[in-house]
Amino acid sequence: MKLWGGRFSKDTNELMKKFNSSFYIDKRLYKQDIKGSIAHVRMLGKVNILSTEEVDKIINGLEGILKDIEEGSLKLEGDYEDIHSFVEANLLERIGETAKKLHTSRSRNDQVAVDMKMFVKDEVFNTVFKIDNLIECLIKKGRENEYLMPGFTHLQPAQVITFRYHLMAYVEMLKRDKKRLLNALYILDESPLGSCALAGTTNEIDREFTASELGFRCITKNYLDSVSDRDYLIEILSAFSILMMHLSRLSEEIIIWTTPQFKFVTLSDEYSTGSSLMPQKKNPDSLELIRGKTGRVYGGLINILTTLKALPLAYNKDMQEDKECFFDAIDTVNICIDVMTGVIDTMKVNKEEMLKSLKKGYINATEVADYLVKKGVPFRDAHEIVGRIVLYCEKTNRAIEDLKLEELKSFSEEIEEDIYEYIEYSNILKKGNKKYILMEVE
């Protein structure tokens, strides 16, 4: 069954049928398409375009189709142009000619627009739930492992922090990701149903009714924009891309931490793989795949931006290409969040290895400078003095705290015995605004 064809004298070329069909992709919208159709039919009954008997007959037919799809007795397969023609063809087969009244005062343009918005709302709320789970997992892992570790800049040891504090940086990133998605959901929450092809209908329909039935906060205001708007997909794909960038950064850090050179964490066997040649290998493939799949999500964003960049109003068939990239992106994002949650939940944190690493990078050097400043030494001079101390430590292969007081005083007479307590790693985090590193800020 086609939803058009009266003005055509020749059948569509078989290659064109295959090229034009989107059913293999948009069949995923079956639930939203049926739900939207039911709301539309109820509205047609409310405004007396359809009789009560017609409304009941169509709705019963649609609910039967949905039930059969859900139970598996009706397969989403066959030679259909799209999900809309699949639903109408099956409805016609079940209830007869009354099914042809379903599409009154509606176009596939506003139909697919409302279907896609409903799908995005359903699925993105699920993604937000997954983000919450990952946030809770990071917080829990941090609380259980509040050990001292070096913080890095340029991948070089910089200053002392805690493992919990490092994980909390990613919690902040994920909170922003969640806010971006929720904001996008609020903006898109306007019903386009009733816009028809591009200019509404001469029938007196009730768009506010269908918006309320479908759970939208309001209706769209401009029909041309309503059927051609895909901004919300761009915005969510952008938010997904930022989210994947955060997951990729976290993946990279954990990959580094698992190396024999670091040994900060040990991945569970559940999220690792081996080598077909080297029996000693334990590879962090879960994290490498997250890192790699980030490019797929970026690709989805570039895909839809490129598709839309020069389209005239209103709807164009190019827009059919919005779904495949979005479906792939949301599937990728969801599994990556789930895998990262599993990685974090099951990995072991190696306290002793992190403590050992504190000695390797002179990460209390800045605190020596702060100590000298408190003694009245100008910061630029203090910076120079500590630089010479570090150079001396490198030559003698010792940490700053391992130097004798006489050695330290050779660089500045302002240094006294209290320097050792001041630059002791755990004490550092109790001074000044560093105390916030030890505080629960969630």
From TrEMBL:
Coiled coil: none annotated. Residues 362-429 form the Argininosuccinate lyase C-terminal domain. Keywords: Amino-acid biosynthesis, Arginine biosynthesis, Cytoplasm, Lyase. Its EC number is 4.3.2.1. One of its GO terms (molecular function) is argininosuccinate lyase activity. GO terms for cellular component: cytosol. It is found in: Cytoplasm. Pathway: Amino-acid biosynthesis; L-arginine biosynthesis; L-arginine from L-ornithine and carbamoyl phosphate: step 3/3. GO terms for biological process: L-arginine biosynthetic process via ornithine. Its main location: cytoplasm. It comes from the Bacteria. It catalyses: 2-(N(omega)-L-arginino)succinate = fumarate + L-arginine. Residues 6-299 form the Fumarate lyase N-terminal domain. Belongs to the lyase 1 family. Argininosuccinate lyase subfamily. PANTHER family: ARGININOSUCCINATE LYASE. This is Argininosuccinate lyase. It comes from Thermobrachium celere DSM 8682. The lineage of its organism: Bacteria, Bacillati, Bacillota, Clostridia, Eubacteriales.
